[in-house]
Design a protein that fits this description.
Length: about 270
């Protein structure tokens, strides 16, 4: 796509982020630029996949509301800046930069897998806590508190697979429409995209369990991801202090890019 036409969808997304006050001004400018890069490199399919990830993430957030974190254990994201934009769409943008530079259309499938992981993770972390049964920590196999990183439920895993499958299906339909690949190959690609997206989101939960910092409140004893609780400073009980949810998202995007590139790029 030309740069002029590619700028239009990104501008719409940037205006949406601006009106919601979801991003800082440098965050919006960077997000706009990365969206432009993705659309110039991958055309309408790449933009539709990006927009779907964005829209379904917002939708899952709306459906779950406060129920995705019933005990208020998660650190509030607040207004997100450039670091958060890089952690969440940096790897996908880098893959599309590689496509632009090499002209290899297979990078579009790798990009789809990375976005499938992102949507799978968002859907699971928002909808999973609505499950009636309590989550199990994927790293320790012990029961954990709803909302804490690393916890998995059957409901969350179903939505994880559904989120990854939505992106895989979109990729499949565009492959057929644009006749870039024959239908059996496109079907195999879609299965790889959904599987890698699901595996990447599980890897995200594993990192959330083992690496992401968690604290205990000295006042009430609750385990939380916040530095303050009950008006007191909390004590670190596990994980690495500098590893927050953004870092985990970046690492699991990179993991998904590597495993999907190994399977999709010949
Ligand atoms: Zn407390």
């Amino acid at each position: 796509m030309t740069i002029i036409t590619s700028a239009i969808p990104g501008t719409v997304l940037a205006l949406a982020a601006f009106s919601k006050k979801a991003l800082t001004t440098p965050g919006i400018i960077l997000a706009w630029f990365l969206c432009l890069l993705i659309t110039v490199s991958g055309g309408i399919p790449a933009f539709v996949i990006l927009a779907e990830t964005f829209v379904f993430t917002v939708l899952a957030d709306r459906i779950a509301g406060a129920c995705s974190d019933p005990y208020g254990v998660r650190k509030r994201a607040g207004v997100r800046g450039t670091a958060s934009v890089i952690c969440n769409v940096g790897i996908g943008s880098f893959i599309m930069l590689l496509k632009l530079l090499t002209g290899n259309i297979r990078f579009l499938a790798v990009y789809a897998a990375v976005m499938a992981e992102s949507l799978a993770d968002s859907a699971a972390s928002k909808i999973g806590p609505l499950s009636k049964s309590g989550p199990i920590d994927i790293g320790t196999f012990k029961r954990t508190r709803k909302g804490l990183s690393g916890g998995v439920t059957l409901l969350g895993s179903i939505f994880e697979l559904a989120g990854a499958s939505v992106i895989a299906l979109t990729f499949f339909l565009f492959s057929l429409l644009q006749s870039q690949t024959d239908p059996p190959r496109a079907l195999i690609d879609a299965a790889i995209i959904a599987s890698c997206g699901f595996a990447g989101a599980m890897f995200d939960s594993l990192l959330g369990s083992l690496l992401q910092v968690k604290f205990r409140c000295p006042q009430c004893g609750a385990i939380t991801e916040k530095e303050m609780h009950c008006g007191k400073e909390t004590v670190r009980i596990s994980g690495i202090r500098s590893i927050n949810n953004d870092c985990v998202n970046l690492l699991s995007s990179a993991f998904t890019a590597l495993i999907s590139a190994a399977l999709l790029i010949q």
